[in-house]
Amino acid sequence: MNVLGLDPATTTGFAWSDGTTTKHGIWYLNKVKRLSDLYDKIMDVHTNWGPLTAIAYEDASFGAVNRNTQAAHNELRGVVRLVGERLDIPTTPFHPTTVKALSGSGRANKLDMKLACKRLLGIDVRTDDEADAIFVLEAWKEKQQKDRIIAAAVPETVERLF
Q1: What does the pLDDT average to over 11-16?
Q2: Which helix (H) or strand (E) holds 98?
Q3: Of 48, 72, 145, 159, which is most buried by a Cβ count within 10 Å?
Q4: Could you give the C-alpha distances from 9 to 30, 64, 77, 108, 123, in angstroms and in order?
């Protein structure tokens, strides 16, 4: 498992895990070439940290008040999905409320997210973007665990129906 969690924006938070090691931080995307810059950074992770098996990202286009901000988020989301397609790996979006809920409140503000990273995960972060990416990665892990539980329960349920 090599999973990359992202909070895509001009300042993109990232969190990567191979199941034992986790790396996290922020990428400052070139404002003029932010789409190709994000693509290149994701591909660098894939090449240098081990082949990615999945990408999870915060789908921040939800709730963006400014239409230009919403369009920019949609463009970055498209880059993430393109990389997933090219690498033939799943990309999983998470609603911001889902990501924030892992901090203890679906309405957590930027400072709350940073503090929750330290309090709940023991991780010091520099920015809320980095914290969001870490919680996106945690949301992906939680979803995988739920999916395994459901998959394990399905055969029993089907057998009882017949």
Answers
A1: 97
A2: helix 96-101
A3: 72
A4: 11, 12, 9, 18, 21
Q: Which two tokens stand for residue 51?
A: 């082949």
Q: What is the CA radius of gyration of the chain?
A: 16
pTM exceeds 0.85: yes
Residues across the chain: 162
Tokens of 22: 């986790």
- Please state, in angstroms and rounded to a whole number, the distance separating the CA atoms of residues 22 and 15: 7
Encode pLDDT of 122-152 as tens digits. 999 999 999 999 999 999 999 999 988 888 8
Closest by CA to 54, choosing from 97, 18, 3, is 3
- Residue 1 structure tokens: 């498992």
